[in-house]
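Problem 12. The chain below contains 346 residues. Write out its predicted structure in token notation.
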Amino acid sequence: EVIELVVVPVPVIVSQKPPALPDLSHDRALDWLDTEWGNITATFLLCVELRIDASAVGLGQFAFVIALGRRGGMAQVCRGLEAAMPAAEALGERRVLASHRYLLGAALMRVGRLEEAVPELEAARVLMAEEGDIVGEALAVEQLAEVRLYAGDAKGAIELVRRATGLVPPGEAAVRVYIGVRLGRALVLLGEHGEAREVVSHLLKTACELDRQKERMCLDVLGRAALGLGEARTALDLAEQAVAISRETRHPVFEAISRTDAAVALRHLGATEEATAMHAEAMLMLEVAGEPHRMVRSLLPYAEACLATGDREAAARHFRAALETADAHGINYLVPAARSGLARVS
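Solution.
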């Protein structure tokens, strides 16, 4: 965030080193994952059933998180990591267990199960600190900050982000970008759009040198900051750049998120038909990916944009859809926001 979750350095256990590695460039690797996904899933389930612990944990941490992080289905990620947790505990490798708890906590958060995510992330933080894994500890703290952001506690998130920043040793450029982007998001939530732009602008060059998705993360925040500063045209341009990156790197979930940002900007530019089509595409992508939590988090800002631009009927429709989806999938923490939005347009 391949997916945000794999920024954490996950330990690798290789019991039998292969004589050679296949040529798996980015597109070939993704094609291979898509082709073999049924076999990978079946192998994982068999490893869990037969208590082949190292393989169960390895497949749970890598195949599920990387593949589904790109293609969606975060609920399945949670189920896979939960199923492999006994294996992670049985291995007796504290660093492996720390990574497993980190990934499970981050996945739980991304399906909206915030109360369950916190103890997993805190347990991961403690294990990583005890093992001397400073980078892992910093990332666990950062994910706890993300929980605060999801819950709308920007000040609490900033406090944790600054704590995470203080832990990161020199030379960890990717981690610093990752944590810095989180600070930018928190500042946007606080309404400090100028400061958010300044913070993330300083990260953009480094992000571009790392990988396309780090660049996309920066563009997302810069676009939201621009919108907050009244620069809807700039916001649209940045969102379109982010959409192009995720399309090129074949990350439909992230593409849908950036499409929502583009739809919000189009609403503010008065391009109602384009905005409606753009947001509908984003929602379809998230529905196909099996991401109801992301759907609600897409519906709410778009509904707010409809309301802000005077389209109360569209706002009511999207707030209602957000409420129905949140209720249907037990995404309880977003229910109050959806109900509040509906009350404002009634």
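Discussion. The chain has 16 helices and no strands. Students who got a different answer should revisit the alignment rule from Section 12.3.
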